[in-house]
Design a protein that fits this description.
Blueprint: E1 8-13, H1 21-31, E2 39-44, H2 46-49, H3 56-73, E3 81-84, H4 90-99, H5 104-108, H6 111-120, H7 126-140, E4 146-148, H8 154-171, E5 179-181, H9 216-224, H10 241-254, H11 258-264, H12 270-297, H13 299-328
Helix pairs in contact: 3-12, 4-7, 4-13, 7-8, 9-12, 10-12
Length: 333
Amino acid sequence: MSSENKKTIFSGIQPSGRLTLGNYLGAIKNWIPLQDEYDCYFCVVDLHAITVKQEPKELRKNTLEVLATYIASGIDPKKSTLFIQSHVPTHVQGAWLLNCMTYMGELSRMTQYKDKSQKSGANIPAGLFNYPVLMASDILIYDTDLVPVGIDQKQHLELARNLAERFNNAYSPTFTVPEPHIVKASAKIMDLQEPTKKMSKSSDNPNSYILIMDEPNVIRKKISRSVTDSIGTVNYSDDQPGVKNLLNIISVFENKTTDELVDYYKDKGYKELKEDCANAIINELEPIQKRVNELLDNKKELEEIYKEGSAKAFKKSIKQVRKMHKKMGFIPN
């Protein structure tokens, strides 16, 4: 099927830190099977990362590492368009046009803004307030049909849908109103130290998360230190969130049901559960880590991929931005 006949998917991850196991299982691993069925645009959303102050050297390093991780995990540049968001100026151009149609009340209700602004104190950056509009632009300028979203991003997709409809009603049909793409349920990966919370790289405790690039000995150590309980038997239960989390991880990596795993571990203890969990993670991540390091050692290959990707992304998105300009009354350049 040619890309013209395929529905379009857009998604991206911020390079605001190194990627975790949660990023891999919750996003990247789910993107891989989409490539044959859809016209996919996957980018590193570096413009979103600067809503919180970034160290320039780290931002550059993390941006390339995220892109290399996409490729090493199985996102194929021949099948999908891979690029860095800041290399495609139409994202910002579209965001300003949509910004002028967005209500402050809509943005002030965003859950992530409320959470992050509490940590920022009195000096809240305007970008933290406004970035959902940039996210809407990311989606709409590609005439995106479907957006893979987690539960914490549904509110942002709803804003993109509202803005698409608002623009269409004000100026005539222009945008496809994007729909959420619900992937096969992948269990949410929880914090290894506080298993009732989602795993996050923003945690102050490095033992609470696993990074995609963590070395095998580090992964074994973090899993061995993961919080379980004093019950002593392996059950898949909300009363045992730490054990449930380890079972979810093994289940995804080994393609086994949690019922099968509970049956397997019925006469075994937490030590064996943790050892098997660490092995399952390492077996999947080691070849990815090797390929990431190869790409980062040969930046020329990475550069060719992101340059080709940004040229393709610009060619598609500029058509939509020009339509927006024309309909809003701007004189063509």
